[in-house]
Amino acid sequence: MFYDLNVFKTAYAMATHAGQRQAVVARNMANADTPGYQPRDIEAFQKAFENTGQQAAMSATRDGHLNGATGPQPWAEFEVTPSGDPNGNGVSIEEEMFKAIEVKRQHDRALAIYKSSMNILRSSLGRA
Fold it and tell me: How far apart are CA 106 and CA 100, in angstroms?
């Protein structure tokens, strides 16, 4: 009855997106001094979620997990326009720090949505 609520799927997708985008931002920052490295990014969750035209599918990490549901995430990495560094590196630490803050806020928002939804569900069952 409560296993297929869209609010939980959306919160999960948002948190997963934030984790993947944080990994991309961290990789960009780690390669800030690598000559010729071009930064990458993942489109914003809202834009990616709207463009799918369907619900975001959760991906299983092992057999039997999530009833065996597998599938690609609706977002993909893309190269960011280079900033014109003399060594050909396009990473701006300041921009990556702003992206990291944005990602943390997105992750915190996803957890707040999940927590609030759980509280509403518990209250409706009389188990506050």
Answer: 10
